[in-house]
Specification:
Order of helices and strands: EHEEHEHEHEHHEEEHH
Number of domains: 1
Largest sheet: 6 strands, mixed
CATH class: Alpha Beta
CATH architecture: 3-Layer(aba) Sandwich
Number of strands: 9
CATH topology: UDP-N-acetylmuramoyl-L-alanine:D-glutamate ligase
Radius of gyration: 16 Å
Number of helices: 8
Helix content: 40-55%
Oligomer: single chain
Structural class: alpha/beta
């Protein structure tokens, strides 16, 4: 029987990020992907033009309908957009109690488009992060969450520790945007700092963060521990980026 992973997040009409990227990742790794849409985006490889949030009642109904029918092993959250959506998702996940929850705190797109309303950052940190198995902010998101300007690895370590103090759950700061020779992700689990290092690929890609978080959720659902899931997901994303192509006029996708 296949492991089931549910993604809760926004759509990407170009297919490179968001729920579409998550579903592709799930299938590539070998788990069954279900989805709950929180928002629709008019988006391509060059950027986002518009966002249309889904009504709260329908978000709740999507989540409940999936859980009523399937044994969901893991959940990955992405773009939640506003405070009311965050609170709804938290409430339903507390009710259904999946084994693993991977939170990708999508706040700003790679082209600078805001994907989280003002005032919702604190709600995410106070309500969603504490129920997560792990959160996976990138450099910009970790800076917003921690209030620490992040340039290099030492800054990321300080930020991860500060975020952990709020939520008491492991924090993985993705290193794709750090000013380092290698792509080094920084994990703090409450006891020690760990680094996950990979080659920095000098390309502009679309959807790598979504792919990484959904990869971690997939490997957790397949029975791997957290460290192994991170390592396998990092290798998976690196391989995807190496094989990405120009299907549009902007960033590489796969």
């Amino acid at each position: 029987m296949h492991s089931v992973v549910l993604t809760i997040g926004g759509s990407d009409s170009s297919g490179g990020a968001g729920v579409q990227r998550d579903i592709k990742t799930f299938e590539s790794i070998g788990v069954y992907g279900a989805s709950c849409l929180t928002a629709l985006t008019a988006q391509n490889t060059m950027g986002i033009r518009n966002i249309l949030p889904i009504p709260i009642s329908f978000i709740k109904e999507q989540i409940d309908t999936v859980f009523d029918d399937m044994k969901v092993s893991a959940v990955k959250t992405g773009m939640l957009y506003d405070k009311s959506i965050i609170l709804t998702v938290v409430e339903r996940l507390k009710f259904h109690k999946p084994d693993y929850i991977v939170v990708d705190p999508v706040m700003v797109s790679g082209t600078g488009y805001s994907l989280l309303e003002n005032g919702a950052v604190s709600e995410m940190l106070e309500s969603l992060f504490p129920i997560a198995t792990i959160s996976t902010p990138n450099r910009m998101e970790a800076s917003l969450l921690s209030g620490i300007e992040i340039d290099g690895i030492e800054d990321a370590e300080k930020a991860a520790k500060k975020i952990f103090r709020f939520c008491k759950k492991p924090v993985l700061i993705k290193g794709g945007h750090l000013v380092e020779k290698k792509a080094v992700d920084v994990l703090f689990d409450g006891e020690r700092v760990r680094h996950f290092s990979g080659e920095r690929l000098d390309v502009q890609v679309h959807g790598a963060g979504c792919c990484y978080a959904s990869g971690i959720a997939s490997y957790l659902a397949l029975g791997n521990n957290l460290l192994s899931s991170i390592e396998k997901a990092k290798r998976f994303v690196s391989n995807c980026i190496e094989n990405a192509g120009h299907y549009g006029k902007g960033s590489l996708v796969w």
